[in-house]
Specification:
Layout lengths: L1 H24 L3 E2 L4 E6 L8 E4 L2 E10 L7 E5 L15 E4 L5 E8 L3 E6 L5 E8 L12 E2 L5 E5 L4 E4 L35 E7 L11 H5 L6 E11 L2 E9 L6 E8 L3 E9 L9 E2 L10 E2 L16 H18 L15 H16 L2 E3 L20 E2 L16 E3 L3 H10 L53
Parallel strand pairs: 1-3, 10-17
Antiparallel strand pairs: 2-9, 3-8, 4-7, 4-9, 5-6, 5-8, 11-12, 12-15, 13-16, 14-15, 16-17, 18-19, 20-22, 21-22
This protein binds 2-acetamido-2-deoxy-beta-D-glucopyranose (7 copies).
The site of one 2-acetamido-2-deoxy-beta-D-glucopyranose (NAG) has 11 residues, from β17.
Length: about 475
Amino acid sequence: MKGYSAYLQLPQTLWYLVQATLVLAQSKQSLSLNSLSTFSGTTLSGTPLFALPSAPQLSVSFALCSAGSSARFFVSNSSAISVPSSLGGDDVFEIQLNDGYGSWTGAAPDGGTIAVEDIGQTNFEIGVSNSGQSLFCTDVMHQVLDTLPLLGDTTSNQVLLFSPPFSPPPIDQPTYPNYTLPPANLSQPSPPSTSPNYTLVLSPSSSSLTSLPQTGCSLLSTTSSGMQLSQDLWLRDADGWRYQWLMGGLTSVTNYTAYVIQDQTKVSGPIYFATKSAGFPCPLVHSLPYCPSTAFAVPLPAINTAYDSTTLPSQVSSPLLQYVSNFTTMLTTFACGRDLYSPLQTCADCQREYRKWLCSISFPRCSENPLSSSQSPSSGTQVPFPALAPPSQRNQFLPPVNYTYMTLLPCLETCNAVDRACPNFLGIKCPVPQFNAGASYGVGFVDSGEEDVLGNGKTGTAQDQWGNVWCNGF
Ligand SMILES: *[C@@H]1O[C@H](CO)[C@@H](O)[C@H](O)[C@H]1NC(C)=O
Ligand SMILES: *[C@@H]1O[C@H](CO)[C@@H](O)[C@H](O)[C@H]1NC(C)=O
Ligand SMILES: *[C@@H]1O[C@H](CO)[C@@H](O)[C@H](O)[C@H]1NC(C)=O
Ligand SMILES: *[C@@H]1O[C@H](CO)[C@@H](O)[C@H](O)[C@H]1NC(C)=O
Ligand SMILES: *[C@@H]1O[C@H](CO)[C@@H](O)[C@H](O)[C@H]1NC(C)=O
Ligand SMILES: *[C@@H]1O[C@H](CO)[C@@H](O)[C@H](O)[C@H]1NC(C)=O
Ligand SMILES: *[C@@H]1O[C@H](CO)[C@@H](O)[C@H](O)[C@H]1NC(C)=O
């Protein structure tokens, strides 16, 4: 019996020798904590090894930078394993890649080792981090974010796009007796001193970005379409700050795919959107501090790029601000902050919802019939037709235009939100679906349209990730 086990031990010992020489032959490259490293398959040979730092909690993530790789990634957090491999063993983990990325998180009190098999010619990245150390949440360096980019609107050759939100502003409810509401002519606060680095990646959907590894390095290596006309930080709403991009130089009647890459490794997207037909006449309006979520095409005279607060005629902005300030005067005849008119809503909520509604009424949104493809998605379900209407309730303060256009009606929910948020004595009444609300609002998309019933609409949303826009929810 003793002899038998001695016989078994021999090859084992030999195996360690083999491993030892392997390790000597290809030294381990050390990766440090909270670092991102890029490697090229063309300059690595055999099975490259990497040494991991020790940490009570370590996250290691991998990303392929190009398609067609069959590389396999092994992690071990045991100091007894010098070459983790497909042979397995205690504390050896093969990292399954999904859409080109994968990760491992666990304890690594003695550090660990990474081995990459079948590496081929691919470039790949390894991210090493520990819990709670990075500024913008999250431990794992490579990941697909839950939050999508946001489409503002398109013209025939431009698009307004937003990154996911970050740094939500502090909520400061005014208090009695000094109940001071924001001024009609709101200004944007100064942006946060640090922000994630967001990069927009944009391409016609026909070039199939979605078939690439869905990793930052893979998407950033593609040639993005269009020409950046502006990029800035914008506080649209309580969700927080966003990067705002105005892109030009796009092709009309084309379905585009967009991603936003955060800090080169985190992927938000894809979203899709369609550019309008070549003759679409309305310019985009954006970056109005007093209408912070307005970001769509409006029937205004043609302009070089797009309208913002510096170019919007004051004959349009002045009455709008007057409406807000007159409304605020009426609202504050109520003892805001001392008396309650609702257990849930405050005068500040009322003013905010009124402003949002007023902006969506004062700026009619231009639109046109959608691309035919969006009406027959592969799922087979019928996509509802958007709330398009001829321009009937045009804001009297808008300067005349020499073209015809269709409007996309505001979602009825923007009106119902004012009704819900404001005291009764203001007499706010929204039309009801049974009684012609559809003439002035998009009805039944977000909410069902039944009074006081939230949700259950046909689409549940004003617009979706696939480029469908049903009513103006801005
Ligand atoms: C390695 O990680 C696994 C999974 O997190 C854990 O169960 C194991 O205890 C770790 N090994 C060491 C040596 O810490
Ligand atoms: C009332 O509040 C506003 C804004 O919060 C502030 O600017 C102002 O100084 C306050 N006035 C008094 C008398 O406290
Ligand atoms: C942001 O990321 C892009 C893309 O990787 C990079 O080119 C740029 O230098 C980064 N900017 C900053 C300020 O880090
Ligand atoms: C409409 O007006 C714009 C200037 O606002 C001008 O450039 C354009 O040629 C006009 N178009 C027509 C069809 O008259
Ligand atoms: C609104 O405020 C900005 C400065 O914040 C100012 O430049 C602009 O003229 C004001 N607009 C109106 C209509 O008063
Ligand atoms: C706002 O109130 C003033 C003073 O009462 C009034 O002259 C003005 O017409 C009102 N503006 C609007 C847009 O209702
Ligand atoms: C754009 O393309 C995507 C993916 O092919 C598709 O699901 C979507 O419906 C298209 N959107 C439009 C507006 O055509």
